[in-house]
Amino acid sequence: MEFFFEQLINGLAVGGIYALIALGYTMVYGVMRLINFAHGDLFTIGSYLGMTILATYAVTAYLGPFVGVLVLIVMVMALVGIIGVILERVAYRPVRQADRLSAVVSALGASIFFSNLVMLIWGPRFRVYPEDILPRITLNILGLDVPLLRILVLVTSLILMGILYFFVQKTRTGTAIRAVAIDHGAARLMGINVNRIISMVFLIGPALGGAAGVMVGLYYGQVNFTMGWSYGLKAFIAAVLGGIGNIPGAMLGGLLLGVIEAMGAAFISTAWKDGIAFIILILILIFRPTGLLGERVADKV
Amino acid sequence: MLLTVKDLFVNYGNVEALHGINLEVDEGEIVAILGANGAGKSTTLMTISGLVSPKKGKIFYKDIEISKLQGHEVVKYGIAQVPEGRRVFATLTVQENLNLGAFIIRDKDKIQKTLEWIFELFPRMKERREQLAGTLSGGEQQMLAIARGLMANPRILLLDEPSLGLAPILVKSIFETIRQINESGVTVLLVEQNARAALKLADRGYVMEVGKIVLEDRSEKLLKNPEVSKAYLGG
Ligand SMILES: Nc1ncnc2c1ncn2[C@@H]1O[C@H](COP(=O)(O)OP(=O)(O)O)[C@@H](O)[C@H]1O
Ligand SMILES: [Mg+2]
Hints:
The complex is a heterodimer. By secondary structure, chain A is mainly alpha-helical. In chain A, 75% of the residues lie in helices and 4% in strands. The C terminus of chain A is likely disordered. Chain B is built from 10 helices and 10 strands. Chain B is 37% helix and 27% strand. Chain B is of the alpha/beta class. In chain B, strands 6-7-8-3-9-10 form a 6-stranded mixed β-sheet, with helices on both faces. Chain B has a 4-stranded antiparallel β-sheet with strand order 2-1-4-5, with helices on one face. The interface between A and B is medium-sized, with 23 and 35 residues.
């Protein structure tokens, strides 16, 4: 039984990371009906930026491990968010009125550009995060052995999701984001600047992806320029699982995928771990293409 | 004049949809635009609202030219539109839809006041404020769309076929509501296919045919005009 709960926490921690990345896919899809193929690469950039900032500026040496990592995450979120905004301006805005294929080609091009850029700057080999930034201790909670790092990753992603949820559901700008996701034209009639909202989504989504990148770096201790591929794909599957375009759906889909993978690895076979995500994708596409929370209300009009 | 449209040409790609439209709306009026499907009525309203850019011609609010503004800026000048097909935000609540209607207004007290007036006008909306807009009936969605437009405190309200797809009894009540809105001081530019009802309500009317205005007159006169009668009033 302990093993089960330990795996559950493990799955939730990884799932929280999937969820953070999935939010970027789903928010961009929501307002633009576009899969931002470069999103996984923005996550990778976040991870590398975290590594470089840690190695160069030793934020944790001055501020202590916890505040230091918090500052690091915020810095990386800001930087990756800005890259996201620039990406939209340069690669997506010019082709917004064009046909769908142009946008897809532009997205693929952006992805190739970023992964090559990362390889050029940081090299093609695995790089390691500075060691022991956070104490590698294991806590005993209610009889369960849980690494502190795992708890921190889970708590951080839950807090970020909570903030996002509050922002999107309760604030004026958040409501405007949801309105733009439903109907650009009607949103403009309300006086909403759709371009500004899209920029904002390209700030928030990549920022969350950047935070996930730092956490993966700290959690696993190493980074590689292809990591955006596997995490991006898993997170995309999580977004589809929850219902692409649906923000709570991405959160649920990410956490669920993490848990299913962890359980699959623990109780079926570790060799199957990566296959599970694809099996889920296929099942969802067959049985519930709208995802778990997609299309809550049928449009009566 | 509150609103003036001067020699307006609009293209969709290479196809010209409006070939030189002129129209005026004076403060306090209800003005109707009539015409068959595809005549260019919605295009006219969308161009006034800034969602479609004119190829040629100008639009003025009082004496301010608004035809170069972007879509989200026009509503700030006091011109709100209730678009064809209602286009309420289906997965948002009634209250959230109303809040979005007041998106451009920062004064919380003013929003609250308008909201109270809206709830007097449409008591249904108050009962349903927490309900998702997509779960409302067609008539209720139309009320919500109008209410949402009024939340911007417009000087002029553009209404695009508010009676479309509604049962006759609801049509009557929607037209009655439009009269009340106008009596409270909001100027109305009303696009309708339901020509008789629209002309009974309006002070003046314009008749559009394939991107042109072919007739304009006071409503009483249009109602008696044999050609209008034949084409739009069913004999
Ligand atoms: N978004 C659009 N793209 C291309 N053509 C359009 C578009 N909207 C309308 N049209 C065309 O412009 C003409 C006028 O349409 P519209 O303004 O919707 O007329 P109405 O509201 O009077 O029915 C029609 O021929 C219609 O097919
Ligand atoms: Mg129309």
